[in-house]
Design goal:
The chain is mainly α and 212 residues long. The chain has a domain of 141 residues. 79% of the residues lie in helices and 0% in strands. The two termini are 34 Å apart.
């Protein structure tokens, strides 16, 4: 929670300074808004931003909820990037032990290539979707153009669902891989490795935009 708090503080500080001036840190505006964003409150202190963006209360409330989600996703993605790299490296080198017939060998070869393509594609898609938010937020805080951020908030609900599913798929794969292939783990048999590949591939294929 402390790390998340610090991340959100750094993320919203440009917006706070834009809204309240350079003395925002001294007046405690940043800390108050950080607590409100992290909490499940309805964002009463941020309602003025909704008026500036010319959003209805309903549009702004839904957009604000998704904005909070994007902050969490951005923080999560920065934390799992290194872990995902280790999973990809492991997938590229993992081999089964024991007997492997020709059919299983062919599936594992094809399955590994498909899985790596889907996983890298899903990661690229999450970065691309997150980039929509980063561009819009930069437009507001760096270029003073509120309409870009307004358009983002209107699109945010659909982007939020897509990004959440993509991130969930990646986190599932990382979590399972760390559990099954820890430092003291035994190599998998061909049937087990096939099952793992099939589970991972199924998780990634149902995610919007995965591998595209």
């Amino acid at each position: 929670m402390a790390k998340m708090h610090e991340f959100v503080r750094e993320e919203i500080e440009p917006l706070v300074r834009l809204s309240f001036g350079n003395d925002a840190a001294e007046t405690g505006s940043t800390e108050r808004l950080v607590k409100e964003i992290i909490s499940n409150s309805r964002g009463k202190k941020l309602l003025g931003l909704g008026a500036v963006l010319r959003l209805s209360p309903e549009e702004y409330e839904e957009g604000l909820f998704c904005w909070k989600g994007f902050l969490y996703f951005k923080w999560s993605l920065s934390n799992i990037a290194g872990e995902l790299a280790l999973v990809i490296a492991g997938l590229e080198t993992v081999k089964p032990v024991g007997p492997v017939d020709g059919e299983a060998r062919e599936y594992l070869k094809r399955g590994k290539a498909v899985l790596l393509q889907l996983l890298k594609g899903c990661w690229a898609q999450t970065r691309q979707t997150l980039g929509v938010y980063e561009e819009a937020y930069s437009g507001l805080t760096d270029r003073g153009d509120p309409l870009i951020f307004r358009d983002f908030l209107l699109r945010a609900p659909s982007l939020f669902d897509s990004l959440g599913e993509q991130l969930g798929a990646i986190q599932h794969i990382i979590s399972f891989w760390k559990h099954r292939f820890g430092p003291r783990s035994t190599p998998p048999s061909a049937p087990e490795l096939i099952d793992i590949f099939m589970d991972f591939e199924s998780s990634l294929q149902v995610r919007p935009g995965a591998g595209q």
